[in-house]
Amino acid sequence: MSDDDYLSSNLLGDMPQPSGMSPTQDLEIVRNVPVRVSAVLGKVRLQVRDLLKLRSGSVVELDRKVGEAIDIYVNDRLVARGEVVVSENRLAISITEIIRIE
Q1: Are residues 42 and 19 in the same domain?
Q2: Domain span at residue 85?
Q3: Do 28 and 42 fall into the same domain?
Q4: Which of 5, 73, 3, 6 is nearest to 41 (CA)?
Q5: Do 48 and 82 belong to one domain?
Q6: How confident is the model at residue 19 (pLDDT cuts 50, 70, 90)?
Q7: Cα separation values, 70 from 21, 73, 77, Å
Q8: Beta bridge partners of 39
Q9: CA torsion 6→36→59→53, rounded to 10°?
Q10: Would you state the pLDDT for residue 38?
Q11: Is residue 69 a contact partner of residue 41, using CB atoms and an 8 Å limit?
């Protein structure tokens, strides 16, 4: 199953489908819909007094270890895991695992 077919069947599964259209054609309906993508490197819980002490150069320890996968969310829903890479002098994400949406 291609990624387009998978996305179409999971994202559009409840939508009425015009007869004679393939899942890839159905996906055309949503191709230009903006979504928010977030890559979470880790989390930390701080008290307000500790947050107010942060300055430029402060180090905040996160709950992940070096080399652990980061979580990738689309509209606040976990969809993948990956790793941080450098691409053309920019930080980027290499997706290593797709989380199946049920």
Answers
A1: no
A2: 35-102
A3: no
A4: 73
A5: yes
A6: low
A7: 36, 10, 14
A8: 72
A9: -150
A10: 95
A11: no
- Read off the pTM: 0.64
- Residue 49 structure tokens: 């007094």
What is the tens place of the pLDDT at every residue in 41-89?
A: 999 999 999 999 999 999 999 999 988 999 999 999 999 999 999 999 9
What is the three-state SS of the chain?
A: CCHHHHHHHHHCCCCCCCCCCCHHHHHCCCCCCCCCEEEECCCCCCCHHHHHCCCCCCCCCCCCCCCCCEEEEECCEEEEEEEEEEECCEEEEEEEEECCCC
Distance, CA of 91 to CA of 56 (rounded, Å)? 21
For the chain, what is the domain count?
2
- Residues 41, 66 contacting (CB under 8 angstroms): no
User: What pLDDT is attached to residue 16?
Assistant: 54
Q: How many residues does the chain have?
A: 102
